[in-house]
Amino acid sequence: MASIGSLPSILETKRESFILLHGRSQQRPRFPFLWYRPQRAFSFAVSNGGFSLRFKPVRATAKEGVNDDGSDDPLQATIEKSKKVLALQRDLLQQISERRKLVSSISSSSFDQEIDRTSYDQRESSLQPDNASTSRKNILEQQNGNGGIVPSSYVDSTADELPETASSAVSRSYFKGEEEFEQPKSPKTDSSVKNSTKQPKDASSEKSFLTNTLEVSVINDEKTEGSNESASPEVNNVGSDSMTEHAKPPPLAGANVMNVILVAAECAPWSKTGGLGDVAGSLPKALARRGHRVMVVAPRYGNYAEPQLVGVQKRYKVDGQDHEVSYFHAFIDGVDFVFIECSMFRHMEGNIYGGNRLDILKRMILFCKAAAEVPWHVPCGGICYGDGNLVFIANDWHTALLPVYLKAYYRDNGLMQFTRSILVIHNIAHQGRGPVDDFSYVDLPEHYIDMFKLYDPVGGDHFNIFAAGLKTADRVVTVSHGYAWELKTSEGGWGLHSIINENDWKLRGIVNGIDTKEWNPVLDVHLTSDGYTNYSLETLETGKPQCKAALQKELGLPIRPDVPVIGFIGRLDHQKGVDLIAEAIPWMMDQDVQLVMLGTGRKDLEQMLKQFESHYNDKVRGWVGFSVKTAHRITAGVDILLMPSRFEPCGLNQLYAMMYGTVPVVHAVGGLRDTVQPFDPFNESGFGWTFDSAEGSKLIHALGNCLFTYREYKESWKGLQRRGMMQDLSWDHAAEIYEEVLIAAKYQW
Ligand SMILES: Nc1ncnc2c1ncn2[C@@H]1O[C@H](COP(=O)(O)OP(=O)(O)O[C@H]2O[C@H](CO)[C@@H](O)[C@H](O)[C@H]2O)[C@@H](O)[C@H]1O
């Protein structure tokens, strides 16, 4: 059976066919190329980056009897050449047909769907190894050929067995059928907004070159001699498979479905200190909607309600000491969430990155060591992911050791040969730095030290985890195009710019999306009480003022519909530019505005927030703390969101704001520049205001224009709100691009 790994050979076959047909250098004919042979001919047409192959009868032309290289005995040469070409095409059709059989054997079996659901439901109720999940394992194994892995630890949780590898994996979402691919609901209605057309494509419009290789049509049913005979059954096969596909659309990812494990130190809603938690909680769901089998692995900091204990324990060494870990699992919105339980993580929910440098380093070493083996040890739906067709997505320095361990512990030793890693940079400012001696904690062969060692003009040589992760990951992603560019500069790369430049070939900027169930004024659960209300584009003009009044009431501010309310939500640190707001405060307080700020972080900045509130009690509220509910309510209740960040890899709050009809005023850096197109009053376009350098005066200028428009140009304001709300900010588009990176990683050696 052809495996997914046969792509290169398919392409090679195509390339050879092309060379045979067209020669190696000169005389490249135009497509579609029609090549003469007596009685019948075939043409190659290139469409969408793929080939379609057509047999078609042709008449003898003026060129009849002349070989294309002008040699003698043209008929014989032609026959020889046609035999070679047809042999190659037969091969190609064979491979295509096998792939189709593989796909249709997976997708067409309603038996699979039923049993998959049954076994999964049973597992959900017990979450212990049982007959149902064992039968699911058998089914998956039959479908996989060699199946995923059910390690012996599944039976004997303490055994230290050597893992097997699985060469292919099957997406659970794939089995679950069409409902997995439902579009997320969105409040937008206006099709005039250009981004709003970004919907997940249906299978027929997939651009995947793998899928396109399947675009073979044969339009000649004439009886043929020799080699053509064997092509015919393949042709029929292709036709019937097409019908099967028509009845049951394949996953959006097409033939590129793979196993994906996102590993992050935080994952909303269970654990969150900022945007990383949001991304870990939502990107995987979008990948699952595309048909991939997706897992998130995060530490278990607290007693979470949904995840249930899995009967597997393992031990990992950190700093010479054995640590026992166990695993909790929940299957939610098509994603397997696996939480690693260990004494080191317990009760850290309020202090995820707390403790001294070594404390957190050890936690992350343990986490990465354990996470790397989750696909071997933790059965999800009764069956482990296995390490074939698998890509890890690590996030920030906390999990940047994972690509290093993947290489040093496994791939260097002939294990996990088909597993790849992608490292996502959410914030390069935090790198896991320490003295070179810290290398002794990470348990790696001595020669690996060079990966971690980095020279710092201030501190000299130091140990840098992000540096090693960037070098060893198969691909690197960052969360916007603007930030991808900034990372390569000495100002934006924070000492890692040289490494990033050296690895530019594997870097890609992908703008984050948002969870449109979680952050949606239509569905927001935090807007259903205390005078708040859900609202949509249609009810914006009543719903948003109601939320504004509820916010003013809740915070004890004068309830005034006419006063512009300005908001800020974020970590209180240098990055977020809170001090720029402080610079602008005297000017702001001269305006008729209200200001609401929510954040935690640096103690001096927390103090500053409290001072603002006490000095300007009738106008300012400074809420020091971390409150998801309040963040949602502020986003809905304010008119303007300020984001004067000094740097901002992507920024999620401006996306949330636009989704809620709140107009952003941002410093045009990183993802803020990518996502907030400045308002153009002449064309009535754009989403907010930007300023081009992190200075208080620039912020004042942009905010001044914004306030002026709010007061004097009501229709323009409504347009800004509506355009913001009508964008498609969901993860679906980003997930499609992530998929391209997954594929690139998969075929990289
Ligand atoms: N006090 C508080 N109470 C409640 N909620 C609070 C809060 N403070 C912040 N939040 C929430 O935390 C999230 C912050 O996300 P951001 O993307 O703005 O920043 P962060 O810098 O953490 O993330 C990094 O990673 C993300 C994800 O890639 C990038 O977008 C970003 O640029 C990068 O700096 C938002 O959901 C926000 O509502």
TrEMBL record:
One of its GO terms (biological process) is amylopectin biosynthetic process. It is found in: Plastid, Amyloplast; Plastid, Chloroplast. Residues 259-501 form the Starch synthase catalytic domain. Its EC number is 2.4.1.21. Its main location: plastid. Belongs to the glycosyltransferase 1 family. Bacterial/plant glycogen synthase subfamily. HAMAP family: Glycogen_synth. This is starch synthase.
